[in-house]
Amino acid sequence: MIHLTFLSKRLLIQTSLLSLVLTSFPRTVFGSSTNPSTVQRSPMPTVAQAAPEFSDVGRPRRRRGGGSRGSCLIANKPPLTALVPDSSTGFTLAPSPSLWFYLPYRLTEQHSLEFVLKDSQDDLVYTKTLAGNETAPGIVNFRLPQSVILDTAQSYEWYLLVQCDADNQERFVFVNGAIRRLERPELQQQLATLPTAARSNLYAGESIWYDALDSMATQLQDAPQNDQIRTEWTQLLQSIGLPELATEPIGTCCMSE
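The structure corresponding to this sequence follows.
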């Protein structure tokens, strides 16, 4: 069982745990409220696959989970996956954005997850450990708290680690990537004039990946039987090479507050 003592202990081992993940990667340079059924929807644009031209120093990234000890794979299920382009990098307009992940595990008190955010100087910005409550496998949303505001002057590295073996704290699986907040006042003004159903298309057309995904996933949560939204959700995931996740259920786990 995971008790407060365990969570406190995780805080003590967090540095060594992250060190095990992070030091395995040499540092490298980045490469270049309207009812949805009543709104006329345009075709979902294809999101650009090129890595955003961040100028900061970062680490190699993985959107599919790799375990530190053993594979932590679940039979007949995709691995832990971050819903991001293959580069694992992307833009947002949101001060405190959402990130979406596919969890193949049924999270229990014995299986916790940890989210970590670091700035471009490798300093810890935010960390949160959550123990599951029989959370079913599926796509989940981790929204940063409003107290964590991304600075537009730098990019950030995020990590999601899942304890996949309750009996071995060194056996975990993780994904990691990067995010940068943009200031686009004219685009934000345009978005404010659009119905919710049209915003994801504009985000996608401007390659604002994190917000395009968040907007579409939220629409699907609100109208899971809407065939048009389901089709656009599938197209969006296909555009980044993750079509196998389009039919996975969207859960309610992991909101940071």
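The longest strand covers residues 172-181.
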